[in-house]
Amino acid sequence: MTRVSSQIAAAHIDLIRAIAGAVGEQVDPSEARAAIERYREDGWSALADALEQRLAGQPVDASSLDDEDRVVLDAVENAASNPAWLDAVEAEAEAEAAEQIAALILAATWGEREALAAINEMRETAESAGVAGSTAHAFVAIVEGERDIDCLSRDFPESRRGLVNATLAAVRRQERA
After folding, report:
1. What Cα–Cα distance (Å) separates residue 9 from each residue in 22, 58, 71, 128?
2. What is the CA angle 85-87-88, rounded to 5?
3. At what angle do helices 83-109 and 113-128 cross, to 10 degrees?
4. Rounded distance, CA 40 to CA 49, Å?
5. Do the Cβ atoms of 69 and 8 come closer than 8 Å?
6. pLDDT of the chain along its 177 residues, tens only?
7. Among 22, 42, 59, 80, whose Cα sits 20 to 30 Å from the Cα of 116?
8. CB atoms within 10 A of CB 162
């Protein structure tokens, strides 16, 4: 997959894991169906239809799907045949994102208004979605000076530890530069 595709796969990783797990019979299909239904409710009807067909073992005509939907469907196939592949994609996407987030965090630390607004908007989005202790909350704590991954993981239990850890490493590298 290309770098952009890795980012797309990482953005839909929970859905991909659920479908691939059900296809590979490692996950209860009801979990996969619930994930598909959430996507359908969010307006991803064509993708939801294709994933339901795949889950039912039917052939899927991907020609009616947009590029992002096709990447998700391809990711399901890759993850179903090689579950470790998805972990590698997630790690790659986190590493790429961490460098950009670290730059944003450092800019916010130095008082750049746009960076501060962006970090705050991430936190507000998480809060409006009902997620307390999110990755965005951890990023705010990093802006405020926290550098201990164990403290961040404890204080922000809903955060993605891998992304937070990769971001901390990138912040440290960028601080030294």
Report:
1. 17, 22, 7, 24
2. 65
3. 130
4. 8
5. no
6. 444 477 788 889 889 999 999 988 777 889 999 999 999 999 999 999 999 999 998 999 889 899 999 999 999 998 988 888 888 888 888 888 899 999 999 999 999 999 999 999 999 999 998 888 999 999 999 999 999 999 999 999 999 898 999 999 999 999 998
7. 42
8. 16
